[in-house]
Amino acid sequence: MTLQAIRYDDEGLHLLDQRALPQATRWICCRSAAEVADAIAQMVVRGAPALSIAAAYGLALAAKRGENLDAARDRLADARPTAVNLRWALDRVRQAPDLEAAARALHAEDLTINLRLGAHGAPLLRDGVVTICNTGALATGGHGTALGVVRSALAEGRELRLYVLETRPYDQGARLTTWECVQDGIPCTLLADSMAGLLMQQGRVSSVIVGCDRVAANGDTANKIGTYSLAVLAKHHGLPFYVAMPLSSLDRACPDGASIPIEHRPPGELFDALPVDVWNPAFDVTPAALITAWITEDGVWRVLPNEY
Ligand code: MRU
Hints:
The structure is a single chain. By secondary structure, this protein is of the alpha/beta class. The chain has two domains: 6-113, Up-down Bundle (Four Helix Bundle (Hemerythrin (Met), subunit A)); 120-301, Translation initiation factor eif-2b, domain 2 (Rossmann fold), CATH 3.40.50.10470. Helix content is 35%, strand content 18%. The protein contains nine helices and 14 strands. Strands 6-5-4-7-10-13-14 form a seven-stranded mixed β-sheet. A four-stranded mixed β-sheet has the order 11-8-9-12, covered by helices on one side. A three-stranded antiparallel β-sheet has the order 1-2-3, covered by helices on one side. Helix 6 links the parallel strand 4 (127-131) and strand 5. Helix 2 (48-64) packs parallel to helix 4 (84-94) and helix 2 (48-64) runs antiparallel to helix 5. The structure holds 5-S-methyl-1-O-phosphono-5-thio-D-ribulose.
């Protein structure tokens, strides 16, 4: 059984409040698309596939309440700009005759995709593996993408240790990934982002695996801020750098990384003790040249094919 952080019933959309973890397990119920959009913007739910699932249910709630679906779609789509999965899900559910059924199907499908992705990626991992952010069950419909590959590798009996970067400034690694690892008994070691270079220099890891929020047609990949630095370090140390990519993260309309919108989060999420200017981009773009392979539900891609 995989952890489920998203539930939908007659009352509304129930989200495990990721802001409260790991100290408390608290659920929030959203009864309208506007409430779902606010929950997304305020990080109650985060992680690209989880955003897509929440947004799909948000649109279903709008339909149930007889609200204007175009307005609801736009409000949900604007809640966070970088993860393309959110818009992909809204477009898919908007076209369905039964929006609630379509949202439920998308939710169930995400878990299946992650299990397939995990099976494809598992043979690539051994020994020490470093990751950033949270890409686990909390960030998806279950199992996870990059963390799902780690789960699948362990389930196959491979001996692994996951090195989890803290993921400043929002600490998704420290608060969420370690929480999932402790729950599931995944061997893990937490370190600050700035320690990744020494970790690699000392030969403690043999690969890097990360998630993604949007992959452009040329393979440039947007993911949590700090991913690009990790890829540069991996290149310097000759380590493979893997991106776990559900195909819903691939944006064929986006030619390259420069075209990916990068979300900037409120300054207070980084520092609020002084009235100082703060630069707080939530994502960065890793050029395709630094990526060894994209692990998808359809297999491991060493290059992105032009036609899918
Ligand atoms: O700002 P967040 O926490 O939504 O950022 C999440 C990430 O960057 C994840 O790595 C990405 O969405 C993949 S989740 C499977």
